[in-house]
Amino acid sequence: MISAEQHPIELSRRKLLKVLGSGLLVAAFVPEGLANLIDQRRGPQLPQVVSAWIHVGTDGKVTVLTGKVEVGQNARTSLTQAAAEELHISPESVRVIMGDTDLVPYDMGTFGSMTTPNMVPQIRRAAASAREALVDIASKKWGVDGKTLRVENGHVIGQKGSASFGELASGKAISAPIDAAVALTPATDWKVLGTSLPKIDAREFVTGKHVYSSDVRIPGMLHGKVLRAPSYGAKLKSIDTSKAKAMSGVHVVEEGEFIAVAAPTSHQAQQAIYAIKAEWTPAEQPSSKDIFKLLRGNEQTPAPQMPADVPQIGDTYTCAYIAHVPLEPRAAVAEWKGSKVTIQTGTQRPFGVRPEVATALGIPEADVRVLVPDTGSGYGGKHSGETAIEAARIAKAVGKAVSVVWTRQEEFSFAYFRPAGVDQIYSAVKKDGTLVTWECDNYNSGPPGIETPYDVESPRVQSHPSHSPLRQGSYRCLGATFNNFARETHMDRLAHEIGMDSLEFRLKNLQKMPRLQAVLKAAAERFGWATTKAPAGHGYGLACGTDKGGYIATFVEVAVDTDTKAIRVVRAVNTFECGAILNPDHLRNQIEGGVLMGLGGALFEAIEFENGRILNNRLSRYRVPRFSDVPKLETILLDRKDLPSAGAGEAPIMAIAPAIGNAVFAATNVRLKSMPLRLPT
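^ that's the sequence the OP posted. Answer follows.
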């Protein structure tokens, strides 16, 4: 268990000012008791509330430092807006330094949709405290009451004149703790927050100027490749590296079972790997055909005892392992200077990668610096530091900077997957639509989202760990996507059993969840649920869910080809509510991106494996959504300025799969209970 006290802010004032120049420094401290916990066996369970740093330079520019990273969710933009809002300056006057372990405060990582509800308020409080500190400096300088002064466009203004932030901060080394009670701008008065500020540095991304980890080049740098086992659990029996060592410019690294090469080009390094002769002893492994039986084992949950006049329904639901398929595969560049290594890598947890590297190389954490260039997506799949460790080990062995970039095949085979899972649900419902009982047992995929939002007395839910034959870990929305699929599919079946409309049934049993009711009603109205009828061969379906402060309702129309049994989503209406909206355009992007990602898990994506080998480890064999799969999307945003802002990176993904499955049932009378959804041919 690690607290904030065990990870103090490592950046000294002298070091920070050396980097940023002199000016006013405002530190945001972690309130006592709010340090989050780490379960060392499974990784971080809750995002850590972190301190935030704001520096006001002599030129009036503001630098925000945060341990959060940018992986496509536009956190850089929302944090810029947060600082600009409370300092009453333009976003152009703000720059944000993210994910540099030598410069920014400790942070558990960027996951769990926590940047918006956690870091944005911290930055706002820090910025507001900086504003008040500047006013205080001006009031003392002019000998006036600070209440008579106002802040506009980077200036403090009063009857005795005007002074810029740069003038007031010039030469000062003034630190001030965050005032927890500092006045923040109400959402109803926002001028920067709540607007669709374009993505920071968008031009660099669309023109190809942005440098990703895989683009980093250092003079004299070599390219590294690692010899991989042919199957999970295989042990190295013998090795012959003589041909690789004889290749011009090639360095071979042999450290136990870690065999790697470095060469002037990536192609040369790959050819050197091909030249190595290795024999392996395979380990016996199961296949994807047997996975659900394996995960559930011999456990059989008995059905609850119910009165004879109350019908009981039990069903089993399953989901496959799926891959994250990030736009940018894992990549890292490592460079040693003396005893210290600097690593540039795309990760969601720079402060998690740092101890991984330190442990692997047997060096102090203080000798590891991790920097995270804005990264080409993560989806929960970049929590670990494999490439950082590999690059650091090879670079140390060869004495030069080394870049390691995984191929797509490596990403599919050796990264971790979204867990496969099994849900067993027993329920009972009265003829008037009242839920009587609800029991759900999950196997392997985890407890997130397993609690039902529906009104039922004493529901019983339990998550059972299993031994997974594949490496598994975090994925967008964690296990909530599958648990929500099982629950929303089952709810649709209950409605059908008693002859009640699916929407009416849900609304009846959501009396304690008005926010979920609201998104359902808004989506239903836009979709025309009560006023339109599906054409022949088509079906309408709906689903809803809530996770991490976000509320989603999805209504879809599907078309089913009676000959090929292909399922096509024609239209999807999504309503989302996450409190006060920080940036409408970027929120819409998150929602629609989540829905389309969920479309892949709903209809196509499944890892196939046998004898420890991934059989579909390339995009030509692993189906992800294509442009031709994109339905007509309609997105409704409910802006609740009376509520705190929550993140939107995860919850929007969770309703599309059950909505599609329920629509398929409406079109075919076939209830699909496994993800991906496939009609029998």
